[in-house]
Design brief:
Length: about 575
């Protein structure tokens, strides 16, 4: 008798009705399929320390309106996080534009540049500057909209329709930008709608106006400030500081952009497409050289007193090339530059201070042997022979270096150039009279924005510079450079930015065309970042940003350009100081 097989009933799998979300602290929350990530986070963090702005869902940055359809890991992004800050500022800009159009129909507002205390400098260009009463009316409308908690909707629209809207509003800078996108055969656009106003913004938004409680509108020079919180105090606005030198640098650069006819990325791309970039490059470089010559002239006029030039600035600002080009100009004026490397004066590793995490803090002023540095400076200026120190980064110990002496007969015309992050800190050189010092602050303060409403952060320019240079000179991957960047930024905020107004002069190292040159070099490096790594969120953001720029070959960059410090091929690499 054969085996008897029981007939088994096979039923189709039932669709899941719930999903589970796991937080970094291992707590798990369950909810219906399609629940937004914002709802999960609201349940998990009913009273967050900083306002929740977005989330990482399985390592991908998502808006709080993102619908969760399967089990996933979720990490909250708040206003103390760099991505949270960017989303908050972008959303606040949208709110301000919407309120301004309600209060003052037809007003054209441009976001010009950022301010160190937390804000955007804005201006209107089709009428007189906004009055205090008008700003107060806009702020009141913004507060009304925040209280009403109006949704910020996201949708996709055909590119042709978006271009038509931009044309009707006379936003020709956006038309130029997106015509480049049209050439790339992308026929749609991510679009945001708030109340009756709609626009494109480069990046994500908060779900509604109720998230945007912290802001201020203040008259400022011939424009106004849209003020927002900084990361370290996400629920407070910082006191307003007047930085006259910084403001002057931005004004000069804005004048340069108008002179070059490249006030936005769309205009730059149009210049590249017309094959007219060579003139733009030459004029940009000439403006840099003119500024360095002006700085040299100031030093020359103080030559009876100035003996030391201190060059400081944040990472990848171009300090090294600036110092060398300054040295060339000093030689042309009959002065004799001598480079004194601050890195040689690091204390031995066991004496290096540690940060709040217990790690060595190489960027702290106490990591430098100030007594030896000042003693060597004095001896050199007196004409003594001095054995300079050399720091061995492998052993972490300071070793004897070469012996140098400023040659007799030239001492009165010798200028010692010191490049380092602490150059603006008064505590660095305590042994010399203040009149013998001349301080230069170098930074890449770009004002070339995507369009009137989408800023190009100066930090992004420096990060892309550093990714490119680190890969070429140190063999670092983009992943490694991005991973270090947060620590680098903390050091800058602590040791550089507080002292920038101590500078006798500021030099803006930004070049209008540089991101077009860096694009084909940086993109392959960013594409190598692993998709499941923490650094991919930043890499993806930078790749999305670089898509707006038409590429330019490095061969077009002059050999003495400051940009060569990052892309290689600088004719100044062999420049001799002594």
């Amino acid at each position: 008798m054969g085996d008897v097989m029981a007939e088994t009933e096979v039923r189709p799998a039932q669709p899941r009705t719930n999903v589970c979300v796991t937080l970094p602290d291992k707590r798990t929350f369950e909810g219906p399929v399609g629940t937004t990530v914002g709802m999960f986070l609201k349940a998990a963090f009913p009273e967050p320390e900083a306002p929740l702005i977005a989330a990482l869902v399985n390592g991908q940055l998502r808006e709080l309106t993102y619908a969760v359809k399967r089990d996933c890991d979720v990490e909250p992004i708040d206003l103390a996080h760099s991505d949270g800050v960017r989303i908050y500022r972008r959303s606040l800009s949208f709110l301000m534009m919407t309120a301004a159009r309600k209060v003052l129909p037809g007003v054209e507002i441009f976001f010009d540049h950022s301010l160190p205390f937390g804000g955007y400098f804005c201006e209107v260009r089709n009428r007189e500057p906004l009055t205090p009463d008008e700003l107060e009316a806009i702020a009141a409308e913004m507060q009304r909209m925040v209280a009403a908690d109006i949704p910020i909707a996201r949708t996709s629209i055909p590119l042709e329709e978006a271009l038509s809207i931009f044309q009707s509003r006379n936003e020709l800078d956006k038309v130029q930008l997106f015509q480049g996108r049209e050439r790339n055969k992308k026929d749609y656009l991510q679009w945001y709608i708030l109340d009756e106003y709609q626009d494109y913004f480069h990046g994500y938004m908060v779900p509604s106006t109720g998230y945007l409680q912290y802001f201020g509108l203040l008259p400022w020079e011939d424009g106004f400030i849209l003020q927002f919180p900084r990361r370290h105090q996400p629920r407070e606005l910082q006191p307003v500081q007047r930085d006259p030198q910084l403001l002057s640098v931005f004004r000069d650069y804005g004048r340069w952009l108008r002179l070059l006819g490249a006030k936005s990325v769309g205009e730059l791309n149009a210049i590249i497409a017309r094959k007219e970039l060579r003139t733009t490059i030459l004029v940009s470089e000439a403006l840099h050289e003119q500024r360095i010559a002006d700085i040299t002239q100031q030093i020359w006029e103080r030559r009876q007193h100035v003996r030391v030039v201190l060059v400081a600035g944040p990472s990848s600002s171009g300090k090294t090339t600036f110092a060398k080009r300054l040295g060339v100009q000093l030689l042309a004026h009959g002065l004799h530059p001598f480079a004194l490397e601050l890195d040689g004066y690091f204390v031995n590793r066991e004496n290096t201070p540690r940060d709040e995490n217990g790690d060595y803090d190489f960027e702290a002023l106490e990591a430098v042997d100030l007594d030896l540095f000042n003693a060597n400076l004095q001896a050199l200026l007196q004409g003594d022979a001095v054995q300079l120190p050399n720091f061995n980064f492998f052993t972490g110990q300071r070793e004897p270096g070469r012996t140098v002496q400023l040659r007799s007969g030239r001492d009165a015309k010798c200028i010692i150039i010191v490049e380092g992050i602490h150059g603006l800190n008064p505590k660095l050189v305590y042994a010399l009279p203040p009149e013998t010092l001349y301080r230069v602050y170098v930074s890449a303060l770009t004002q070339l924005n995507l369009d009137r409403h989408n800023r190009v952060p100066t930090t992004d320019t420096r990060l892309i510079r550093r990714i490119t240079r680190d890969a070429r000179t140190r063999g670092y991957s983009a992943t490694e450079t991005i991973a270090r960047w947060e620590s680098v930024r903390r050091g800058e905020k602590r040791h550089i930015f507080p002292y920038q107004e101590n500078a006798d002069v500021m030099f803006n190292s930004a070049l209008v065309y540089e991101l077009s040159v860096l694009k084909p070099l940086a993109e392959p490096l960013l594409l190598q970042v692993e998709r499941d790594s923490r650094q991919w969120v930043e890499a993806k953001r930078l790749l999305t940003f670089l898509q707006w720029f038409l590429p330019v070959e490095t061969a077009q960059v002059p050999e003495n350009s400051l940009l060569r410090e990052f892309i290689g091929g600088s004719s100044l690499e062999e420049f001799r100081w002594d």
